[in-house]
From TrEMBL:
All residue ranges annotated as the ABC transporter domain in the record: 7-248
Gene3D superfamilies reported in the protein's UniProt record: P-loop containing nucleotide triphosphate hydrolases
Presence of keyword Lipid metabolism: no
Full protein name: ABC transporter ATP-binding protein
A Pfam family it matches: ABC_tran
GO molecular function: ATP binding; ATP hydrolysis activity
UniProt entry keywords in alphabetical sequence: ATP-binding, Nucleotide-binding, Transport
Cellular component per GO, a single term: plasma membrane
Domain of life: Bacteria
Keyword S-adenosyl-L-methionine: no
SMART domains documented for this protein: AAA
Length: 248
């Protein structure tokens, strides 16, 4: 059923000064699944991700989200439709606390004016909702820490919390486990699993054991094109995939 597909691309590609970073990618992401985009270095994962979130304009092809052609839309408009990318917020809101960061994200979602939320009742409600999210991502004990004080893994958890505050229908995660130790990886894997309960997730991720344990479907890119697709069992046994990784 076509409605099963929340996000799809057809012939999506991007060149940089004559160099083809992404060739012609056909991608279909099923609603309610965790879908991973993997591939050796230089395969075009980041470029593809930036095309999907509209941070880069494609050189060719189209992107359809929930039946709407979003190929020429701005990132903010795409986010309003429910397709939201998780951001590295530490650089921007690093000196605000965990609670403040999540509160700001919630306000953004509600479009509240600053005057409006100054009323005590509204502020209480906002704090309560923010704390719910903070608990969900396991940061309750860190609510008054500034983002810069958090460990790398907890920063990413905070980023996921601020993304969840927007209650997106689909979340795009760019290497959610990059640079993390085992403990953070385990904690954030659980977090992503929980976040996926009522939404779709597409992630670019290098850590193959995370990909294996979290993903329903995996698309393997190599040299800007789709090399293989399927569950981990299938793609990890595909000789073309093995060769692409070894030859990379
Ligand atoms: P991956 O994320 O899979 O490692 P990228 O999408 O970052 O791959 O890059 C794919 C290819 O496109 C690489 O060869 C890279 O050097 C090239 N590339 C990416 N972005 C640019 C850019 N802005 N200008 C020129 N070449 C780029």
């Amino acid at each position: 059923m076509a409605d099963d597909i929340i996000l799809s691309t057809r012939g999506l590609g991007r060149d940089f000064k004559g160099f083809t970073a992404v060739g012609e990618v056909d991608l279909k992401v099923k609603r309610g699944t965790i879908h991973a985009l993997i591939g050796p270095n230089g395969a075009g994962k980041t470029t593809c991700f930036n095309l999907l979130t509209k941070f880069l304009q494609p050189s060719r092809g189209s992107i359809v989200y929930n039946g709407r052609d979003i190929t020429n839309m701005k990132p903010a408009d795409v986010a309003r439709l429910g397709l939201v990318r998780s951001f590295q917020i530490s650089a921007v809101f690093g000196h605000l606390t965990v609670l403040e960061n999540v509160r700001i994200a919630l306000q953004r979602k509600r479009g509240d004016s600053f005057d409006f939320w100054r009323s005590e009742r509204v502020l209480d409600q906002l704090n309560g909702d923010a704390m719910n999210l903070i608990e969900q991502v396991g940061l309750a004990n860190f609510r008054n820490h500034t983002a810069v004080e958090l460990s790398y893994g907890r920063k990413r958890a905070l980023e996921i919390a601020t993304t969840l505050a927007l209650d997106p229908e689909m979340m795009l995660l760019d290497e959610p486990m990059a640079g993390m130790g085992h403990e953070d990886v385990d904690r954030n894997s659980d977090l992503i699993r929980r976040a996926a309960k009522n939404r779709t997730i597409l992630m670019v991720e290098h850590n193959l054991s995370v990909v294996a344990s979290l993903s329903d479907t995996i698309t393997v890119l190599a040299r800007g094109n789709v090399l293989a697709e399927g569950n981990y069992e299938t793609v990890s046994k595909d000789p073309r995939v093995v060769e692409a990784y070894i030859g990379a």
